[in-house]
Design a protein that fits this description.
The chain is α+β, with helices and mostly antiparallel strands and about 525 residues long. Helix 2 runs antiparallel to helix 6 and helix 10 crosses helix 11. The strands form three sheets. It has a six-stranded mixed sheet with strand order 9-4-1-2-3-10. The chain has a three-stranded antiparallel sheet with strand order 8-5-11. The chain has 18 helices and eleven strands. Keywords: Membrane, Transmembrane, Transmembrane helix. Belongs to the LytR/CpsA/Psr (LCP) family. This is Transcriptional attenuator, LytR family.
Length: about 525
C-alpha cells in the first residue's frame, strides 16, 4: 500500500497551510504577508496565494520601481527630459490613469492578502490588530496613489486653463521674447492698467535670461508698419502725457479692439506691438499677471520671508490708533499676501526705482521658498491661485520646452536693463526716448549676454517660474544706493537728526507736521532687501 508521503513527497508549505501553525506563527505569517504587500506588492500572492496574480503584480511592481529609479537618475544628472515629461499634458493624462489604476490594483491586492491571511485562524486579540493594520495600510497606499492621480489631474486642468491652444512658436535670432505684465484693476482705476511691463528675452539654447524693464510712463512708443496700430498711430503713441504706455492697454481695448480680430485680449496684443517697437525685438507671446491674485499665490505658499534694510511706509493703524501711514522698520518679516504686495508696491516718500528693487527681492524670496515641500503641502491652493493670476497666449504644447529652459536659466545670472534711468541718462528720457539708442543698447546687451552664457558652466537643476514674475517698473529717479548690494555692505539705517533711532512716534509726528524731507530721509534705504532666512 502506498503511503501519503510517497504520493506527495513535497508536503505543502506552512505559509500556504496556516492551520498547521501555532497561534504565534500565524500572527508572524500575517504580519509578513502584510509587509510583503506593502513593500513588494504581489509577493504575498506568489508565496501564499494565487501565483498568477502575484506574478502579474510583481511585474507591475518591478516596472514601477525601475521607472522611479530612472526618474531619480534623470533628476540628479539630466533633468531636462524629466521636466519636459512632467510638463507634457499627454504624459500627465497617462500619469492620471496609471496612478488611479495602481491605486485600484493595490487595493485588490490588500483584499486578496487579507483572504490569504485566514483571519479566522488568528488569535482573538490579534484579529483586531491585523484587521486594523490592513485597513490602515489600504487607506495609506490607496490614498497616496489616489491623491497623486487627483493632484496630477488638477495640475493638468489648471495648465490647460492657463495656456493657449495655438501653434508652436519658434525662436527669433535664437531667442524667445515674452512680454510679462503686472495688471492692476483696483479700486479707483478705470479698467486694467499694466503698471509692470517687462520683456523676458530667453536664449533658446542656454536658457539665459535678459529682463528688459519698460517704465509705465514711457511715451511715444513706436509701432512697426506690420502692426495694426500703425494705421492709427503712424508716429507712435504720441499724444503727450495721456499716452504713456500703460494707458495703451485700455485705449485699444475700448477704442481699437477691431484691429486685432480674433484676439482673446486685444489690449495685450497691442502691448506686445508697443514693447517690440520700443526694444526693436519681435515679441512672440505675453503673460498678464493680476496683482491682487498674486497676493493669493503668496498666501497659498504660506507667506514670504524678506529682510529689509530701510523704513518702508504702508497703510495701517498708527501708534495713536488712527488709520494712516505706518512703517515697516529694518528687519526680517514673513509677509502674508496683502502685506507682501503693500511692501513691494510702496512708493510713498521714495521712487519707482526703490520699488522695483523691493519687488525683485520679493520675487527672489518666493523662488527660494518655492520648493518641493511647499508645492506638495500646499499644492491645491497654489494651483488655484495660479489659474486666477495668469493670462497668457503661450502655447500649452510647448510648456515642457519652456520649463526646461527655465531650469537651465538658473545656471546663469539674470541680466537686467531698464529703458530709462539709471541705464539711460536723463530724468526726461522716458518722456523723450531715443529709440535708435535703445535698439542699439538692447542688441549690445543681448550679444554680451549670449557670449557670457556660452562660456559659463553646465546647466543647473533649479526651476525659474518666469510667468509668475511681477514688478512695478521704474519711472524717473535713482535711489541713493545700488539695489542688489550684499547685506554685509548695507549702510546703517537712517536715524533722527539728533542721531537717535527712528521710532513709530517720530514717523507719526513727521507725517502730521508735513516734514516731507525727514520722511524721505527715513525711506532712503528701503530699496535694500534680501530674501529672508
Amino acid at each position: 500500500m502506498t503511503s501519503p508521503s510517497q504520493l506527495d513527497p513535497t508536503p505543502p508549505s506552512p505559509v500556504r497551510t496556516p492551520e498547521r501553525l501555532s497561534a504565534p506563527d500565524r500572527t508572524k505569517r500575517a504580519l509578513m504577508l502584510l509587509g510583503l504587500t506593502l513593500v513588494l506588492p504581489g509577493a504575498a500572492q506568489v508565496v501564499a496565494g494565487d501565483r498568477r496574480l502575484g506574478r502579474l503584480a510583481l511585474r507591475v511592481t518591478l516596472t514601477v520601481w525601475a521607472l522611479l529609479v530612472l526618474g531619480v537618475l534623470l533628476a540628479l544628472f539630466f533633468n531636462r527630459p524629466l521636466l519636459w515629461l512632467a510638463s507634457n499634458t499627454v504624459v500627465q493624462l497617462v500619469a492620471v490613469v496609471v496612478l488611479a489604476a495602481l491605486a485600484v490594483g493595490w487595493l485588490i491586492l490588500w483584499v486578496d492578502t487579507f483572504g490569504i491571511i485566514r483571519w479566522n485562524l488568528l488569535a482573538p486579540g490579534m484579529k483586531r490588530v491585523v484587521g486594523a493594520l490592513t485597513v490602515g495600510l489600504m487607506l495609506l497606499t490607496g490614498g497616496v496613489l489616489g491623491y497623486g492621480s487627483y493632484a496630477v489631474n488638477t495640475a493638468r486642468n489648471s495648465l490647460g486653463n492657463i495656456f493657449a491652444v495655438r501653434p508652436a512658436i519658434d525662436p527669433v535670432d535664437g531667442r524667445y521674447n515674452f512680454l510679462v505684465m503686472g495688471g492692476d484693476a483696483g479700486e479707483g482705476r478705470e479698467g486694467l492698467r499694466p503698471d509692470s511691463i517687462h520683456v523676458a528675452s530667453i536664449d533658446a539654447d542656454s536658457g539665459q535670461v535678459v529682463m528688459f524693464s519698460i517704465p509705465r510712463n514711457m511715451q511715444n512708443a513706436p509701432f512697426t508698419e506690420d502692426s495694426p496700430l500703425w494705421q492709427v498711430y503712424p508716429d507712435g503713441y504720441s499724444c503727450g502725457d495721456a499716452c504713456i504706455i500703460n494707458a495703451l492697454y485700455m485705449d485699444v481695448t475700448n477704442q481699437h479692439a477691431g484691429l486685432y480680430p480674433g484676439a482673446a485680449d486685444p489690449g495685450a496684443e497691442a502691448m506686445k506691438d508697443a514693447a517690440g517697437g520700443i526694444l526693436g525685438l519681435e515679441i512672440q507671446g505675453y503673460a498678464l499677471v493680476d496683482m491682487d491674485g498674486f497676493a493669493q499665490l503668496i498666501d497659498a505658499m504660506g507667506g514670504v520671508s524678506v529682510t529689509t534694510g530701510g523704513y518702508t511706509p504702508y497703510r495701517g493703524v498708527r501708534p495713536d490708533g488712527q488709520w494712516g501711514n505706518v512703517w515697516w522698520a529694518p528687519g526680517e518679516y514673513t509677509f502674508n499676501g496683502a502685506d507682501a504686495l503693500g511692501y513691494a508696491r510702496s512708493r510713498l516718500h521714495t521712487n519707482d526705482y526703490a520699488r522695483i528693487a523691493r519687488q525683485q527681492c520679493v520675487q527672489s524670496a518666493m523662488l527660494a521658498q518655492f520648493n518641493p515641500q511647499t508645492l506638495l503641502t500646499r499644492f491645491e491652493g497654489i494651483m488655484r491661485a495660479g489659474e486666477q493670476i495668469v493670462e497668457t497666449d503661450l502655447p500649452g504644447q510647448q510648456l515642457g520646452t519652456f520649463v526646461s529652459l527655465a531650469a537651465q536659466s538658473r545656471s546663469h545670472p539674470m541680466e537686467r536693463m531698464t529703458i530709462g534711468p539709471p541705464d539711460f541718462e536723463g530724468d526726461r528720457f522716458t518722456t523723450f526716448p531715443d529709440y535708435e539708442l535703445i535698439h542699439s543698447r538692447v542688441d549690445q546687451k543681448l550679444a554680451e549676454s549670449a557670449q557670457a552664457a556660452a562660456s559659463s558652466g553646465p546647466y543647473g537643476p533649479q526651476a525659474l517660474p518666469l510667468l509668475t514674475r511681477f514688478a512695478q517698473l521704474p519711472a524717473a529717479s535713482t535711489p541713493s544706493a545700488t539695489p542688489g548690494t550684499p547685506q554685509s555692505e548695507w549702510p546703517a539705517p537712517p536715524t533722527q537728526p539728533d542721531g537717535s533711532p527712528i521710532t513709530p512716534e517720530y514717523l507719526q509726528w513727521a507725517e502730521d507736521t508735513g516734514q516731507v524731507g525727514l520722511l524721505e530721509q527715513a525711506a532712503a534705504t528701503n530699496h535694500l532687501c534680501a530674501p529672508g532666512r
